[in-house]
Write a structure and sequence with these properties.
- The protein is α/β, with parallel strands linked by helices.
- It has eleven helices and nine strands.
- It is globular, with a radius of gyration of 20 Å.
- Bound molecules: ligand C2E and calcium ion (2 copies).
- One calcium ion binds next to loops.
């Protein structure tokens, strides 16, 4: 048993070591990757639940790594936050997303989707953040009303400086603000009263309990309650991670406004969104 234990530790150490090396090599490569445009942005549709019309898209970053292939944000955003590279990377994503939003606006006018972009605490805490956003919008010649910024409650709390001031300045510019992954953090609806927030995105983890015979009555009622309170506060509610018709129907009954998930569309290149905009009714 003793020898076994030792072996287990040796394996564990080797695995941990390999992981450390991989982490190091990923973060070491990131600045060059940014310069060489190895990153790209996919867009996932946001649909209005009543008629399933496309009303927006969420910009989701990916990395086409020359050796490891396609990497999802869960594999590198955390690292980028640790090293600080999230600041230039996040700016790059915002610039890309605004450029794409402008192309959709020029091509489709009123039918162009709102483009929603994720922000990390570290980005929002940069002293130049608000002026950077203004500059990027200006360079793209895009009205601020065409974009939404998504921040988690945790990110808002962790934002250094004055998060409230940052959000107020952005909202004053006309940028929409949504609380991301709502229900997984502090989940305190009352503080939302004091934030210039336009909408909530309900964490996908609620969706599991919202369906069929296995429906978890507590999950369903939680969502029900959150949607109800959000309405009182005048906030738009988007449900994330919607995978089934049963979930979509239930969300509509509850009064949820917008949905996002595999049931409607997976994240993909902008051309896939084009097809949804032009699709005849
Ligand atoms: P998120 O903001 O919660 O984004 C939604 C995630 O759910 C995406 O994962 C999306 O692909 C996935 N998803 C969409 N529909 C479904 C569904 O029906 N079922 C399931 N199971 N999943 C679904 P993704 O693309 O891997 O992104 C992961 C996270 O990485 C995002 O979570 C976001 O927090 C972060 N992220 C992505 N892009 C950026 C970025 O540009 N900047 C920052 N700071 N974070 C980003
Ligand atoms: Ca998000
Ligand atoms: Ca989310």
């Amino acid at each position: 048993a003793k020898a076994d234990g030792k072996n287990t530790w040796a394996v564990y150490d080797r695995e941990r070591n390999a992981r450390e090396v991989a982490r190091f090599s990923l973060s070491a490569r990131m600045p060059a990757a940014l310069e060489r445009e190895e990153f790209y942005v996919d867009y996932q549709p946001l649909v209005r639940l009543v008629d399933r019309a496309l009303i927006g898209v969420e910009a989701l970053v990916r990395w086409e790594h020359p050796e490891y292939g396609r990497l999802g944000p869960d594999q590198f955003i955390g690292l980028a936050e640790e090293t600080g590279l999230i600041v230039p990377l996040g700016k790059w994503v915002l610039r890309k997303a605004c450029g794409q939003a402008k192309r959709w606006l020029d091509r489709f006018g009123d039918k162009a989707p709102l483009v929603s972009v994720n922000l990390s605490a570290r980005q929002a805490g940069e002293p130049t953040f608000v002026s950077d956003v203004a500059m990027i919008l200006d360079a793209a010649d895009l009205p601020a009303e065409r974009i939404q910024l998504e921040l988690t409650e945790t990110a808002i709390m962790a934002t250094t400086g004055a998060p409230l001031e940052v959000l107020r300045s952005l909202a004053a510019m006309g940028v929409r603000i949504a609380i991301d992954d709502f229900g997984t953090g502090y989940s305190n609806l009352t503080y939302l009263r004091h934030l210039p927030v336009h909408g909530l995105k309900l964490a996908g983890s609620f969706m599991h309990g919202m369906q069929g015979r296995d429906a978890d009555p507590v999950d369903t009622r939680l969502v029900d309650t959150v949607v109800g309170l959000a309405r009182v506060l005048g906030l738009e509610v988007t449900a994330e991670g919607v995978e089934t018709e049963a979930q979509a129907r239930r969300l509509l009954e509850i009064g949820c406004d917008v949905a996002q998930g595999w049931l409607f569309a997976r994240p993909g290149p902008p051309e896939e969104v084009d097809r949804l905009i032009t699709r005849p009714e």
